[in-house]
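[09:14] KT: can someone run the structure on this one? pasting the chain below
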Amino acid sequence: MSSLPSGLEDRVHDAESLARFCTSSSWVAKTTGRIKHQAFLPAPDDDTSVYRVSGMSPVEISSHAEKHFVDPENQPHKHHGAAIVEARNVRAAGIDTLAHEGPPRHANLRGWPRHADPELQKSKRKEVATIIADKASFLAKS
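[09:31] RB: done, structure tokens below
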């Protein structure tokens, strides 16, 4: 295995914890803290951006977000915390997790269902995102 600039292996292991920074408060149920499927839906490029956070404390995860989860002007993105899920749960839903460093520890969830019918594609992606979200826990921003 080769090593990335962050020092992590280029292969994301099943037991690794992944953080999806929640840029919308609507991604988390206020009363229960349950993660909603919208948190994991892919961006227009068909990837979902996550960070590899195994071995990091909640304070370290928050600090990493402030430093590396930034906009093109290098300003921190506003976020409300992170949805934490293991790579094995993402893969069990049929989505792969691939290291993709630009920012350190960054990875992409890739392999979202595609279909010629946009409504069917949307439905299939929601179904998969729900499976992932059901396995995630919420880590409030510290």
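[09:33] KT: thanks! The two ends are 34 Å apart (CA to CA).
[09:34] RB: yep, looked fine to me
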